[in-house]
Amino acid sequence: MLEFTNFDLAAVGGFIVLWAGYTYYAEHSAAARGNLIDGMAIRRKEWMTAMLKRDNRMVDIQIVNALLRSGRFFASTAILIIAGLLAVLGATEQAIALVMDLPFTVSTSREIWEAKILFMILVFIYAFFKFVWSMRQYNYCSILIGAAPAASDLPDDFEAVGASIATLASLAAKHSNRGIRAYYFGLAALGWFVHPWLLLAAAIWVVLVLYRREFRSKTMQLTRPSEGL
User: Fold this and answer.
1) Can you list the alpha helix ranges (DSSP code H) found in the chain?
2) Can you tell me the distance from the alpha carbon of 7 to that of 11, in angstroms, rounded to the nearest whole number?
């Protein structure tokens, strides 16, 4: 049986609470209505409404393809990271010896070390699935754009048609955002190999960085309708 210290359990528990708590705060709380994610959702509705009024929609398809390439890059990178972590499992003794040379590093057993590696693998597996699902949703979005009625034959409720496509694009973006957050927290998980409290400190730092970018950044302000171009 693995013998984690109370510090380990507290740090991992705090890490999970911070990750899940921030996700809820950024996506489902009342505060989420004024952040970067919400601002971009509004812009997607404007985009799809404008798309329906255009005869040539190749630019819109190219934008979706660019979003697909971004998700494909992160999904492929997640696979490479997982493969690298699995390789580290095969060289546990050498990896432990390397990390033990760092200052403030707590001693650890082989079993605990391998548990930490598996923890990171799970984080990046989660990221991989999020990016793949995001890519599939962007594919569906491109199909809906292709199936949209021509600009000369728009129905009276064409704005509702655009809103439904924009909602699908926002769902794809939501899962992509969750995958990117997993990258952030996956990097924070590296702190656990040095000290449990470093894991918790890194997770707090990640939350502060995400909050600053999604709620207080200049980019967020420019996505709001009142600040738009």
Assistant:
1) 6-27, 36-52, 58-89, 92-100, 110-147, 158-188, 196-215, 218-223
2) 6
Residue 97 lies in a domain: yes
For 42-66, what is each residue's pLDDT tens digit?
Answer: 999 999 999 999 989 999 999 999 9
* pLDDT recorded at residue 227: 47
What's the whole-model pTM score? 0.89
Tell me how many domains the chain contains: 1
Tokens 């699902």 — which residue?
A: 133
Contact 51, 164 (CB under 8 A): no
Instruction: Print the domain residue range for 67.
Output: 35-223
3 in a structural domain: no
DSSP codes, 174-224: HHHHHHHHHHHHHHHGGGGGT-HHHHHHHHHHHHHHHHHHHHSSHHHHHHS
168, 144 contact by CB (below 8 A): yes
Give residues with Cβ within 8 angstroms of 210, minimum separation 6: 22, 26, 181, 184
